[in-house]
Fold each of these.
Amino acid sequence: MPLVHIDLIEGRNEEQLKGLVADVTAAIVKNTGAPAEHVHIVLNEMKKNNYSVAGKLKSDEA
C-alpha cells in the first residue's frame, strides 16, 4: 500500500487538488504496479505564516 504525504502551502482550489491526487495516483500505479485503490495520499496544507524559506515567512512575500 503506497502512502504519499504531500505538504503544500494553502491556496489551491478543490479542482487543482483533485487533479494533483489523480496525477500522483496515476504515476504511482504506472511505476509500481500497485492498484489505484491501494494508493493513499495525505495532503497537508500549511498557512503561509507557518512556512519559511531562507529565514523569511512565505506570508511576508509580496
Amino acid sequence: MGCFMNLLWLVFGGIFTAIEYLVASLLMMITIIGIPFGMQTLKMASLALWPFGKTVRSGERSAGCLYILMNVLWIFLGGIWICLSHLAFGVVLCITIIGIPFGLQHFKLAGLALTPFGKDIISD
C-alpha cells in the first residue's frame, strides 16, 4: 500500500517538490557558508520524493548549541515560509477524505522544514 501511495504522491506533485528542494540545495551549496543549509534541503528533497513509510525523529544531538543556532538561522532565513506552505497544502488536502494521507505527509514535511537541523529520516 505504501508503494502505491508514494507513486500517487510522486505523480501528483511530489516530483516537483523534490526537484525544487534539489535545485535549492545545489544553489546553496555553491557557497561554503550555504553547505549546511544545502544539506538540510537535500534531506527535505529525499523526504519529499518518497514520504510514505518514513518517519522524522529528533536525533540525540538535536539539543546541541550549534543545532539550535542553525535552526534559529534557518527559521529566519526562510524556513518559516517553507513550513507555512506545507501547512497550507496539508490543510487544503485534509478537507477531503481522499486527501488526508497526503495532507499528513505535508504536515510531516512542515515539521522538518521548520527545524531540520538535528532531525533524522528513518524508514518504518
Amino acid sequence: MNPHLAPVEVPDPAALGQVQHLCDLADPYATGADADTLFAAAMAETNAWHAARSPFFAALLQEQPEIPAPTIGDGVRTPLVPAAFFKRHEVLSVPRDEVFLHLTSSGTTGQKSQMFFDRWTIRSAQRMVARIFDHYGWITPDRPVNYLLYSYEPAPSLKLGTSFTDNYLCDFAPARHTTHALRHTGSGHEFDVHGCIAALQRYADEDAPVRILGFPAFLYFTLERMKAMGMAPLRLPEGSLVVLGGGWKGHTDRQIGKDEFRAAVTERLGIPAESVRDTFGSVEHCVPYVECAHHRLHVPVWSRAAVRDPGTLRPLPYGEPGFLHLVSPYITSVPAQSVVMGDLASLHPGEECPCPLSTDWFTVLGRAGVSRNRSCAVAAAEMMKGMS
C-alpha cells in the first residue's frame, strides 16, 4: 500500500467510530444515501467530542440552532464559527501535549489563525489529499519529477500552512530537483523570479515531467517576465502538471481570468489546460478541494458545502452568491468542524459540470469586504511590488 494511503486511527475508536468510517472511505467523490447517513452520524460524534472538551463549543450548542443547509442535511448541527475567530482565539479540544503540529495562516505580519492539529487530524487531512491525487493519477512513485514551488522555502521557524502543504505534495512523486520561488534569506523571504526562469529553462531540456505548485500570482508574474525578456515559449515535458492555490489577494489589480491564465500557461510552457488545476483550502479547514478537468471545485465525500446569506446567514439556493460554509467531522483537535469562510462563493449541483463526478461544486468569487488581516497570499504578493 502507498504509505500516504495507509490507515490512520482516530483518538478514541469507541467515541469516533463513524468519523473513522467516513474518513476511511477510499472513493473521494462517493455519493448516495449511505454516504449522507454516515456523514450525519460522524458529525454527531464530532460535535459530542468537542462539546465534552471545549467549553466554547459546548456553549455554541446551547444557543439557538442555526438553520440547516439542505446540502449538509436536516438535523445535522453545524454551529457557525467564522474563520476569523481563529485569528483572535486559541481554542483546543485536546491537551497541548497532544498537539502534533501547529500551523498559521498569515504572512510576516498581521493577525494569524492559530491552528493546532493532533496526529489524527493532520494525517487524516493528508490522506484526503493523497486519495484525490491518486484519483487523478498524480501519485507516481516510479516516475521522478522536477518541482518548481511558488511558495515559501522551508525555514526552522516557518509554520505557514501553505508551505507545509506544498512540501507535502512533493511526496507524491520523487524529486529529481526542487526550486523554491520564495527564497529564505535568513531574515525573511524574497521572490527569486530569475531563479524561477532559469529552473524552467533547465527543466524544459530534461526528460522528467515538471510539477509547479503554489501561488498563481507568482507563476503569472514569471510568465510576464519571460515574455518581457523576449524569451521564446518553452515546452515542458509531457506529463507536467500545475496545481495552484492561495489566490491573488493583494494583487487583484493584476489578476486575470482563469481561462486567460490557463491559456498563458499553455502558451508559455506548453502545459495543456486540463493539467492546470486550481485548489481551495485553508489552515482553518484542511479538507482539500481540487479542480476537476473542467475546472470545478467538487466537494469530496468527507465534507459538505453550503453558501449562506451575508446578512442573515440563512442558507442560499444553488447559484446564489454568499459566504462559503464548509463542514467536515474529521477534525478532533479544534472545534473547526463547521467554518464560515471569509470567501464569497456560489454552489452548484454536480450535474452542472460535464465531468463524471456527481458531487456539488463551488466557485470562489472573492473575499468579502476589506479586512486588516493578511493571508499568506497577501504577504507573498507584497514581495512582488516594485518588481514589474
Amino acid sequence: MLFSKAMEWSSLAITEIPNPGTGEAPPGSEGVLTMLKWLAWIVFGLAVAGILITAGTMMINNRRGEGGEHAGRLAWVLGGCILAASAGGVVGALV
C-alpha cells in the first residue's frame, strides 16, 4: 500500500515538471558568448603548448634515460585536451 501511494505521488510529481525547451539567450548575452569563445581559444592554445612542451621535455630527457617518465604528463595533457574538446557536448547533454 505504501509503495503504491509513493508511485502514485511520484508519477503525479513527474508529470507536473515543466519542460523549459531550448530557451533563448537573454538580451546582452553576446558579450558572454564572445568571452566564452575567447576562453575556448586560449584553452586550445594552452593544450597545443602543453603537448609541445611535454614532447620537447621528453626529447631532451631521452638522452639521459628519463624520457619515459614524461609519458604520464603527456597522458594528463591529452586528458585535458579531451575534456576541453568535449565540454560543449557534455554541457549539451546535461541541459
